[in-house]
Design goal:
The complex is a heterodimer of chains A (116) and B (112). In chain A, 0% of the residues lie in helices and 55% in strands. With 116 residues, chain A is mainly beta. Chain A is globular. Chain B has 112 residues and is mainly beta. Helices cover 0% and strands 54% of the residues of chain B. Chain B contains no helices and twelve strands. In chain B, 38% of the residues are buried. The model of chain B has no long low-confidence stretch (mean pLDDT 94). Chains A and B meet through strand 5 and strand 10 of A and strand 6 of B.
Chain lengths: 116, 112
């Protein structure tokens, strides 16, 4: 299995809703990432987990809450989002068995989030 | 600091013509460079990467890139494009640790 899966593909939520995005990989990768991508823009890093511990939080608002319950799963919990949070949310993973720079990132297809 | 500049936001080209997508970088750490492709409504896929060694790097789908240290460039080329190559292409540089800096992207549009 050489892919990263993300569910749901599309999500529409109101500003008072609570929802979660899910990411899964079975490649044995020990680093997992959340990115946010606005239309016609490059991905922006949000969070990185390595060995199931949060390594990077790029000053993301607390209405986004990541969770890494095990080495294969990564969740992003959403609460009280704003319309400007509408974007494509991408999950990625990379192995940690070589130097970090060697680690190409494997991306999932993304979740298209719309906040009303 | 690391940065990436993709010199063209859009590149229209006819099918079977050659194409070059330009990328310039700056880096204060070891230079590791990547090209990713994003097809509509999909995630990013690695086309190729330069870590060390030969400056000409071959990737998937017939793409190649040349690392030029003196010009701080890493241009992507394909000798003959197909309609299916229509996509967004991102040049990226390792920024240390777990961070990758992506360029703004180049939209390749292949016309019949």
């Amino acid at each position: 299995d050489t892919e990263v899966t993300q569910t749901p593909k599309h999500l529409v939520m109101g500003m008072t809703n609570k929802k979660s995005l899910k990411c899964e990989q079975h490649m044995g990768h020990r680093a997992m990432y959340w990115y946010k991508q606005k239309a016609k823009k490059p991905p922006e890093l949000m969070f990185v987990y390595s060995y199931e511990k949060l390594s990077i939080n790029e000053s993301v608002p607390s209405r986004f809450s990541p969770e890494c319950p095990n080495s294969s799963l990564l969740n992003l919990h959403l609460h009280a989002l704003q319309p400007e949070d509408s974007a494509l949310y991408l999950c990625a993973s990379s192995p940690l068995d070589r130097t970090e720079a060697n680690n190409e990132q494997f991306f999932g297809p993304g979740t298209r989030l719309t906040v009303l | 600091a690391q940065s990436v500049t993709q010199l063209d936001s859009q590149v229209p080209v006819f099918e079977e013509a050659p194409v070059e997508l330009r990328c310039n970088y700056s880096s204060s750490v070891s230079v590791y460079l990547f090209w990713y492709v994003q097809y509509p409504n999909q995630g990013l896929q690695l086309l190729l990467k330069y870590l060390s060694g030969s400056t000409l790097v071959k990737g998937i789908n017939g793409f190649e890139a040349e690392f030029n240290k003196s010009q701080t460039s890493f241009h992507l080329r394909k000798p003959s494009v197909h309609i299916s190559d229509t996509a967004e292409y991102f040049c990226a540089v390792w920024a240390g640790g777990f961070k990758t800096i992506f360029g703004a992207g180049t939209r390749l549009f292949v016309k019949a």
